[in-house]
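Final report, section 2: Outcomes. Of the targets proposed, Putative glycosyl transferase is the one most frequently requested by collaborating groups, and we therefore present its record in full.
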Amino acid sequence: MISVTFQFIHLAKSGTLKNSGKLFSIVKKNENVDIASWIHVGDNVHADILNAKKLGINTLHADWSEYNHGISNHWKAKDIIGESICKTLLLKQVSAFHQNDPLNEIGFKVFGPLLLGYVSWLANQLKIHKIDKALFLARDAHLIYKIYNEYFSEEHVKCEYLYISRASAYMVGMTDWPMHRIWHLFGGKNKKSIKKILAIAGLDASEHISDIHHVGFPDEEYIPVSGEEHKVHWLINKLFPYILLKNTQHREVYADYFKTACEGYKNIALIDVGWMGNIQSVFARSLGAQWAEKQIHGFYLATFAGANDNRSIYNKMFGWLTNYGHPNDKCDLFLSGGVEIMEFAMADNTGSTIGYKKTDNGIIPVREDSSGSEIEYLKKAGKIAIRDYFFF
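The predicted structure is given below as tokens.
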């Protein structure tokens, strides 16, 4: 065991500047320091390194040290702490805490602070709205779930990781057919075949070939192109009785998975990256009569203008970066590539939930096996060291 004593010397009070080199002689005299066992660490080449070497003192140049924070406009900033954190992450010495890799650095310097702000906001919202049960939605909320539990495990909010996806929720929670919400439910940037579009609602496209032909599509494997959205909308509306009937059948068997997660709690929070609120909308409807007895709140990284069509007095949604599409400039960033970047950064390394299965122990989620290309994609996403930031 080595005993170490620290003593601080006030340069102005001693009347001696380190730049003159006299400080080292004073320390040696007052402390009777053995030159051979003395190492001086400093960032100034002249004052710390050259002056010390003149007396034979071992030195270590702190070239990683940096004090230039640039111009601070903290009095103009809405979030002073946030600006301070982001400026700190630009300093050279921070590089010692993350790997020298572009993805790793982006995760540490960009997505780390982003999630710190979001999770801090989330924790406050759960208190404000007196939430007693928080459901973190697989897969995109897996990292939010881990971070929240790491820092807020002592909060009096029951937390659960709920396995759900658009595909699994749409098989259970479609109880009505509001025309203004239909395109929200089935739209999206990713091109899908007619077979996959109908599968979202639990239908087997091969059983509806005549309807597919009637609206002008050649077969179930056909992928609609730009300008054919109205045909997809037409087809879905032609088949709505079958979709609602199939949902009723699934709900009678599988809805207990959602009901059990909410049982005994009144103020429920759904937590995910967000966007349009479609999953929250169908999740609430899957609860049946329970829905009217509960307040369901969604707390998301962002919500877009279309989420207005999914909210109600029993089904409220809140976005952190953008709330129902406001402010517009931030929403435009999401719509011009931000969605894909966020989903990449938040990607889980497990398969998506494709449905549910009834067992002797209750309803359990069924998850798909990830393809080879998706596994490679998830490996790249795993290099984004967001979690490392929280141990910085």
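The chain has a mean pLDDT of 83.
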